[in-house]
Write the C-alpha coordinates for this entry.
Amino acid sequence: MIQKKIDVIIPAYCPGAEFEALLNRLEEQSYPVRRIIVMNTEEKFWNPCWEKEHPLVEVYHLKKTEFDHGGTRNRAAQISDGEIMVFMTQDALPADENVIRELVSALEKDPNIGAAYGRQLPSPSCSFVEAYTRSFNYPEESSVKTKKDLPVYGIKTFFCSNVCAAYKKEIYQKLGGFVKKTIFNEDMIYAGGLIRQGYGIAYAAQARVIHSHNYTCCQQFHRNFDLGVSQAQYPEIFADVPSEGEGMRLVKKTFAHLLKSGKWYLIPGFVLQSGCKYAGYLAGKRYQKLPRKLILKFTMNRSYWE
Protein backbone atom coordinates (compact mmCIF):
# COMPACT_ATOMS: atom_id res chain seq x y z
CA MET A 1 0.00 0.00 0.00
CA ILE A 2 1.28 3.46 -0.92
CA GLN A 3 1.86 5.51 2.21
CA LYS A 4 0.24 8.91 2.52
CA LYS A 5 2.27 12.04 3.18
CA ILE A 6 1.70 12.88 6.84
CA ASP A 7 2.38 16.27 8.41
CA VAL A 8 1.95 16.76 12.16
CA ILE A 9 0.99 20.27 13.26
CA ILE A 10 1.54 21.44 16.85
CA PRO A 11 0.78 24.91 18.24
CA ALA A 12 3.24 25.56 21.10
CA TYR A 13 3.61 28.07 23.91
CA CYS A 14 6.43 27.80 26.45
CA PRO A 15 7.13 24.16 25.47
CA GLY A 16 9.07 22.12 27.99
CA ALA A 17 9.98 18.53 28.81
CA GLU A 18 6.60 17.21 27.71
CA PHE A 19 7.20 18.68 24.25
CA GLU A 20 10.56 16.93 23.95
CA ALA A 21 8.86 13.64 24.86
CA LEU A 22 6.19 14.26 22.21
CA LEU A 23 8.80 14.85 19.49
CA ASN A 24 10.58 11.63 20.45
CA ARG A 25 7.37 9.61 20.30
CA LEU A 26 6.43 11.07 16.93
CA GLU A 27 9.79 10.06 15.50
CA GLU A 28 9.20 6.51 16.73
CA GLN A 29 5.85 6.07 14.96
CA SER A 30 5.40 2.92 12.85
CA TYR A 31 3.69 5.00 10.15
CA PRO A 32 6.31 7.62 9.22
CA VAL A 33 5.74 11.32 9.77
CA ARG A 34 7.17 13.53 7.02
CA ARG A 35 7.19 16.91 8.76
CA ILE A 36 6.45 18.27 12.23
CA ILE A 37 5.23 21.84 11.80
CA VAL A 38 5.41 23.81 15.06
CA MET A 39 3.55 27.11 15.36
CA ASN A 40 5.44 28.58 18.32
CA THR A 41 4.12 31.59 20.21
CA GLU A 42 6.96 33.93 21.25
CA GLU A 43 10.42 32.97 19.98
CA LYS A 44 12.05 33.67 23.37
CA PHE A 45 10.41 30.51 24.75
CA TRP A 46 11.76 28.26 21.99
CA ASN A 47 14.77 25.98 22.40
CA PRO A 48 16.79 26.04 19.10
CA CYS A 49 18.29 22.66 19.99
CA TRP A 50 15.00 21.00 19.11
CA GLU A 51 15.48 21.82 15.43
CA LYS A 52 19.00 20.41 15.48
CA GLU A 53 18.09 17.26 17.41
CA HIS A 54 14.82 16.61 15.55
CA PRO A 55 15.30 17.10 11.80
CA LEU A 56 11.59 16.68 11.05
CA VAL A 57 10.78 19.86 12.98
CA GLU A 58 9.98 23.11 11.17
CA VAL A 59 9.22 26.00 13.49
CA TYR A 60 7.31 29.18 12.68
CA HIS A 61 7.34 31.89 15.33
CA LEU A 62 4.49 34.28 16.03
CA LYS A 63 3.71 36.90 18.63
CA LYS A 64 1.19 36.19 21.35
CA THR A 65 -1.16 38.80 19.86
CA GLU A 66 -1.12 36.85 16.56
CA PHE A 67 -2.19 33.53 18.04
CA ASP A 68 -5.71 32.28 17.42
CA HIS A 69 -7.00 28.75 18.02
CA GLY A 70 -8.45 28.55 14.53
CA GLY A 71 -6.35 31.03 12.56
CA THR A 72 -2.97 29.72 13.72
CA ARG A 73 -3.86 26.13 12.89
CA ASN A 74 -5.28 27.23 9.57
CA ARG A 75 -2.04 29.05 8.76
CA ALA A 76 -0.11 25.85 9.52
CA ALA A 77 -2.46 23.90 7.27
CA GLN A 78 -1.58 26.27 4.43
CA ILE A 79 2.12 25.62 5.05
CA SER A 80 1.53 21.87 4.97
CA ASP A 81 1.40 20.00 1.68
CA GLY A 82 0.64 16.68 3.35
CA GLU A 83 -2.26 14.54 2.19
CA ILE A 84 -3.21 14.02 5.82
CA MET A 85 -2.66 16.60 8.56
CA VAL A 86 -2.45 15.43 12.15
CA PHE A 87 -3.08 18.16 14.71
CA MET A 88 -1.81 17.69 18.25
CA THR A 89 -1.27 19.78 21.35
CA GLN A 90 2.15 20.08 22.98
CA ASP A 91 1.03 18.19 26.11
CA ALA A 92 -0.40 15.12 24.35
CA LEU A 93 1.92 12.11 24.53
CA PRO A 94 1.39 9.18 22.12
CA ALA A 95 0.85 6.05 24.21
CA ASP A 96 2.64 3.85 21.68
CA GLU A 97 4.17 3.81 18.19
CA ASN A 98 0.87 3.21 16.36
CA VAL A 99 -1.04 6.46 16.90
CA ILE A 100 -0.45 7.83 13.40
CA ARG A 101 -1.12 4.43 11.80
CA GLU A 102 -4.45 4.07 13.61
CA LEU A 103 -5.57 7.58 12.67
CA VAL A 104 -4.68 7.03 9.01
CA SER A 105 -6.42 3.64 9.03
CA ALA A 106 -9.60 5.21 10.44
CA LEU A 107 -9.56 7.93 7.77
CA GLU A 108 -8.93 5.51 4.92
CA LYS A 109 -11.80 3.13 5.73
CA ASP A 110 -14.27 5.31 3.85
CA PRO A 111 -13.65 8.10 1.31
CA ASN A 112 -16.47 10.04 3.00
CA ILE A 113 -14.68 10.25 6.35
CA GLY A 114 -13.07 13.68 6.64
CA ALA A 115 -11.63 13.56 10.15
CA ALA A 116 -10.50 11.04 12.76
CA TYR A 117 -9.64 11.72 16.39
CA GLY A 118 -7.85 9.62 18.96
CA ARG A 119 -8.56 8.36 22.44
CA GLN A 120 -7.30 10.41 25.37
CA LEU A 121 -6.07 8.40 28.36
CA PRO A 122 -5.64 9.88 31.85
CA SER A 123 -2.12 10.63 33.05
CA PRO A 124 -0.88 9.02 36.30
CA SER A 125 -1.57 12.27 38.16
CA CYS A 126 -5.15 12.51 36.92
CA SER A 127 -7.91 12.80 39.53
CA PHE A 128 -10.45 9.99 39.99
CA VAL A 129 -13.33 12.05 38.59
CA GLU A 130 -11.36 13.33 35.61
CA ALA A 131 -10.19 9.79 34.80
CA TYR A 132 -13.84 8.71 34.61
CA THR A 133 -14.65 11.73 32.42
CA ARG A 134 -11.93 10.56 30.00
CA SER A 135 -13.52 7.11 29.79
CA PHE A 136 -16.94 8.70 29.20
CA ASN A 137 -15.74 10.94 26.36
CA TYR A 138 -13.24 8.44 24.95
CA PRO A 139 -14.60 4.88 25.25
CA GLU A 140 -12.79 1.67 24.26
CA GLU A 141 -14.84 1.09 21.10
CA SER A 142 -14.14 2.91 17.82
CA SER A 143 -17.05 4.46 15.90
CA VAL A 144 -18.03 6.64 12.95
CA LYS A 145 -20.53 9.48 13.26
CA THR A 146 -22.52 11.02 10.41
CA LYS A 147 -25.46 13.38 10.01
CA LYS A 148 -27.93 10.58 10.61
CA ASP A 149 -26.56 10.23 14.16
CA LEU A 150 -27.63 13.74 15.21
CA PRO A 151 -30.99 12.59 16.68
CA VAL A 152 -29.16 9.96 18.74
CA TYR A 153 -25.95 11.67 19.86
CA GLY A 154 -26.87 15.35 19.58
CA ILE A 155 -23.85 17.61 20.15
CA LYS A 156 -21.62 14.54 20.58
CA THR A 157 -21.97 13.96 16.82
CA PHE A 158 -19.73 17.00 16.33
CA PHE A 159 -17.17 15.86 18.88
CA CYS A 160 -13.58 15.97 17.63
CA SER A 161 -10.50 17.06 19.55
CA ASN A 162 -7.38 18.69 18.15
CA VAL A 163 -5.46 17.25 21.08
CA CYS A 164 -5.00 14.41 18.59
CA ALA A 165 -6.93 14.50 15.32
CA ALA A 166 -6.24 13.82 11.65
CA TYR A 167 -7.83 15.51 8.65
CA LYS A 168 -7.86 14.75 4.93
CA LYS A 169 -6.29 17.82 3.33
CA GLU A 170 -8.50 17.67 0.23
CA ILE A 171 -11.73 17.81 2.22
CA TYR A 172 -10.27 20.34 4.64
CA GLN A 173 -9.53 22.74 1.79
CA LYS A 174 -12.90 22.12 0.15
CA LEU A 175 -14.70 23.15 3.35
CA GLY A 176 -12.47 26.18 3.97
CA GLY A 177 -10.57 24.77 6.96
CA PHE A 178 -10.77 26.00 10.53
CA VAL A 179 -12.42 29.34 11.18
CA LYS A 180 -9.90 32.16 11.06
CA LYS A 181 -10.88 33.67 14.42
CA THR A 182 -12.38 31.86 17.36
CA ILE A 183 -11.96 32.00 21.11
CA PHE A 184 -11.90 28.23 21.41
CA ASN A 185 -13.46 25.06 20.00
CA GLU A 186 -12.13 25.33 16.42
CA ASP A 187 -12.16 21.54 16.12
CA MET A 188 -15.88 21.12 16.88
CA ILE A 189 -16.83 24.12 14.74
CA TYR A 190 -15.09 22.49 11.78
CA ALA A 191 -16.45 19.05 12.69
CA GLY A 192 -19.98 20.45 12.82
CA GLY A 193 -19.60 21.83 9.31
CA LEU A 194 -18.10 18.53 8.19
CA ILE A 195 -21.12 16.59 9.46
CA ARG A 196 -23.63 19.05 8.04
CA GLN A 197 -21.94 18.78 4.63
CA GLY A 198 -22.52 15.03 4.65
CA TYR A 199 -19.09 13.78 5.73
CA GLY A 200 -18.26 11.44 8.58
CA ILE A 201 -16.00 11.68 11.65
CA ALA A 202 -14.18 8.59 12.89
CA TYR A 203 -13.28 7.97 16.50
CA ALA A 204 -10.13 5.81 16.47
CA ALA A 205 -10.02 4.25 19.94
CA GLN A 206 -6.68 2.54 19.24
CA ALA A 207 -4.99 5.88 18.45
CA ARG A 208 -4.19 6.55 22.08
CA VAL A 209 -2.55 9.58 23.64
CA ILE A 210 -1.97 10.39 27.29
CA HIS A 211 -3.61 13.72 28.04
CA SER A 212 -5.60 15.03 30.98
CA HIS A 213 -5.90 18.05 33.26
CA ASN A 214 -6.97 18.52 36.86
CA TYR A 215 -8.81 21.82 36.45
CA THR A 216 -9.98 23.79 39.49
CA CYS A 217 -13.57 24.99 39.75
CA CYS A 218 -12.53 28.47 38.59
CA GLN A 219 -10.65 27.04 35.61
CA GLN A 220 -13.69 24.95 34.67
CA PHE A 221 -15.85 28.09 34.80
CA HIS A 222 -13.48 30.04 32.53
CA ARG A 223 -13.06 27.15 30.10
CA ASN A 224 -16.77 26.52 29.78
CA PHE A 225 -17.47 30.23 29.45
CA ASP A 226 -15.30 30.26 26.33
CA LEU A 227 -17.01 27.08 25.12
CA GLY A 228 -20.39 28.79 25.45
CA VAL A 229 -19.08 31.86 23.61
CA SER A 230 -17.83 29.72 20.71
CA GLN A 231 -21.21 28.03 20.36
CA ALA A 232 -23.08 31.35 20.53
CA GLN A 233 -20.87 32.79 17.79
CA TYR A 234 -21.66 29.94 15.38
CA PRO A 235 -25.43 29.39 15.62
CA GLU A 236 -25.48 27.87 12.13
CA ILE A 237 -23.54 24.94 13.60
CA PHE A 238 -24.82 24.65 17.18
CA ALA A 239 -28.20 26.40 17.48
CA ASP A 240 -30.41 23.35 16.95
CA VAL A 241 -28.10 20.90 18.74
CA PRO A 242 -27.97 21.87 22.44
CA SER A 243 -25.22 20.33 24.58
CA GLU A 244 -26.91 20.51 27.99
CA GLY A 245 -28.37 17.01 27.60
CA GLU A 246 -24.98 15.41 27.07
CA GLY A 247 -23.62 17.30 30.07
CA MET A 248 -26.43 16.01 32.29
CA ARG A 249 -25.78 12.45 31.12
CA LEU A 250 -22.14 12.79 32.18
CA VAL A 251 -23.18 14.18 35.59
CA LYS A 252 -25.61 11.31 36.24
CA LYS A 253 -23.18 8.61 35.15
CA THR A 254 -20.31 10.11 37.17
CA PHE A 255 -22.54 10.38 40.24
CA ALA A 256 -23.47 6.70 39.90
CA HIS A 257 -19.83 5.75 39.35
CA LEU A 258 -18.72 7.54 42.50
CA LEU A 259 -21.34 5.74 44.58
CA LYS A 260 -20.55 2.36 43.05
CA SER A 261 -16.80 2.87 43.61
CA GLY A 262 -17.27 3.87 47.26
CA LYS A 263 -15.95 7.37 46.52
CA TRP A 264 -19.05 9.11 47.89
CA TYR A 265 -16.84 11.67 49.67
CA LEU A 266 -15.87 13.08 46.25
CA ILE A 267 -19.50 13.93 45.44
CA PRO A 268 -19.60 17.45 47.05
CA GLY A 269 -16.53 18.54 45.07
CA PHE A 270 -17.91 16.99 41.91
CA VAL A 271 -21.26 18.78 42.35
CA LEU A 272 -19.46 22.11 42.88
CA GLN A 273 -17.27 21.58 39.82
CA SER A 274 -20.26 20.60 37.69
CA GLY A 275 -22.09 23.72 38.83
CA CYS A 276 -19.12 25.87 37.84
CA LYS A 277 -18.99 24.23 34.40
CA TYR A 278 -22.67 24.83 33.78
CA ALA A 279 -22.64 28.40 35.11
CA GLY A 280 -19.68 29.24 32.89
CA TYR A 281 -21.32 27.64 29.86
CA LEU A 282 -24.61 29.51 30.38
CA ALA A 283 -22.79 32.83 30.87
CA GLY A 284 -20.79 32.23 27.70
CA LYS A 285 -23.91 31.47 25.67
CA ARG A 286 -25.25 34.86 26.78
CA TYR A 287 -22.00 36.81 26.54
CA GLN A 288 -23.55 39.45 24.26
CA LYS A 289 -25.70 40.60 27.17
CA LEU A 290 -22.75 40.92 29.56
CA PRO A 291 -20.67 44.07 30.16
CA ARG A 292 -17.14 43.93 28.78
CA LYS A 293 -15.63 44.11 32.27
CA LEU A 294 -17.46 40.94 33.26
CA ILE A 295 -16.49 39.14 30.05
CA LEU A 296 -12.82 39.85 30.77
CA LYS A 297 -13.23 38.36 34.25
CA PHE A 298 -15.03 35.27 32.99
CA THR A 299 -12.93 34.36 29.97
CA MET A 300 -9.92 32.03 29.87
CA ASN A 301 -8.57 33.90 26.84
CA ARG A 302 -8.37 37.63 27.59
CA SER A 303 -6.21 38.35 24.55
CA TYR A 304 -9.11 37.31 22.29
CA TRP A 305 -11.13 40.30 23.51
CA GLU A 306 -8.32 42.86 23.54
Observations:
- The chain has two domains: 6-210, 217-305.
- Residues 6-210 form a domain with the Spore Coat Polysaccharide Biosynthesis Protein SpsA; Chain A fold (CATH 3.90.550.10).
